[in-house]
Amino acid sequence: MKALISIDYTNDFIATNGALTTGLAGQSIEKEMVNVTRTFIEQDDFVVFAIDAHQSDDQYHPENKLFLPHNIIGTEGQDLYGSLKQLYTINQSNPQVYWLNKRHYSAFSGTDLDLRLRERNITEIHLTGVCTDICILHTAVDAYNLNYKIVIHQHAVASFDAIGHNWALKHFQNTLGASII
Asked: CATH homologous superfamily for 2-180?
């Protein structure tokens, strides 16, 4: 069994005026993000929208020392970007579509993701979204450590750091044994 984990494709990470935008790199993968997500939904596979979620007044979160405030819960910045938002809205009542607020880079850290995958007998996860070298990377490392087969959709991941993006793609394949498609 397989699942799609769609990571952080939000206005703050993608829109031109987003707080931590990947800009054109993130915007250029929108069509592929939608196509991959639509395919998983149509096949009735489990689709997880793992979305960065922060409180505006959280003085203890370590990201506050590294990045500008972003993906504040309940703001437009945390909304899915573009056509992916429309696809999610149409399918949000589908029991195979799951919204997961995450507090850390990895979708597994401090969440019930592993439990939800295991109760569905999922052994293979497909990753899409941003940022290749941050949240996708940390999620992939945790997935590897939890013994999931990992598939990265290379035309549906992006970063604001081209060097980090390319390094992460090699790391997924060479160190984590992920399939890059």
From this structure: Isochorismatase-like (3.40.50.850)
